[in-house]
Amino acid sequence: MYKQNTVKAMENGGLYLVPTPIGNLDDMTFRAVEILKMVDYILAEDTRVTQKLLNAFSIVNKVVSCHEHNQFARIAEIIADIENGKQIALVSDAGMPCISDPGSIIVEALIAKKLPFTALPGASASITLFAVSGLGQKGRFVFHGFLPPKRNEKLEMLKLYEKLEMPVIFYESPHRIVKTLIMLKEALGGESKICLARELTKLYETLIWFTLDEIDAGDFEELTQWKGEVAFAILPIRTEHNTHQKVDYCWELSELIREGMHPKLAIKAIAEKTGEPKNIIYANWQIYKEKKQD
What we know:
Blueprint: H1 6-10, E1 14-17, H2 30-38, E2 41-44, H3 47-56, E3 63-65, H4 71-83, E4 87-91, H5 104-112, E5 117-119, H6 125-133, E6 142-146, H7 151-158, E7 168-172, H8 174-188, E8 193-198, E9 206-211, E10 230-235, H9 240-258, H10 263-274, H11 278-293
Parallel strand pairs: 1-4, 1-5, 2-3, 2-4, 6-7
Antiparallel strand pairs: 7-10, 8-9, 8-10
Helix pairs in contact: 4-5, 9-10, 9-11
């Protein structure tokens, strides 16, 4: 067991997890500014991004690179510095360190060594999105972050949330967002509710509310042109009717192709019969085939 009296322990050296604005610089807290001025040095996910932040608040301090690919190598140095009484701050490019950003393995190492650390409250894209999503009637949500890049791994992960009765918050890159939404429709049901956000707290903050069924009718290609990460909350709603309907037309499509019809013509025939867009039919058919192989 390790018990920490944080304030007293931090007097003799420790690590501060310091959140930074997710877009609007005015969201920087007074305490965060003071900590970044006071510490011996700052560990930064991207030193260039952090230097811009420091310049904006007239903070002069040493900045050391600490990102996903070198944080393991930094651990021994961080531990030694804290044991020698140094105060260190850890920041990510935006938001709270350790939340879909570097830092967790450093915290784990400090706990193992019984060395002090603390986190300042502050900006977080996931909490901000949950607050504006309109999906949090029960006051609870699950944070997932980024889904795996591989399709099969994505589908396997989404099965965990199929019967969940609270929103799940994901991050995604713009060039993958449309494909991910189509996959979500198959995995979690077309009636599932979505709140999708970009540029949270910034001048061009944009929020879109829709159900996954509306992907068929709406023009969502503009999402692929967005810059930066996309955050979205989804409330899974699956009905048995939707599930059986998709299985039925996927089975029928497979039969048409097995009987010799060209896949493009078969998909067109199913689209005319069901009113479902051809790209959605194709995506659902691919998932159906993978399930049959399993």
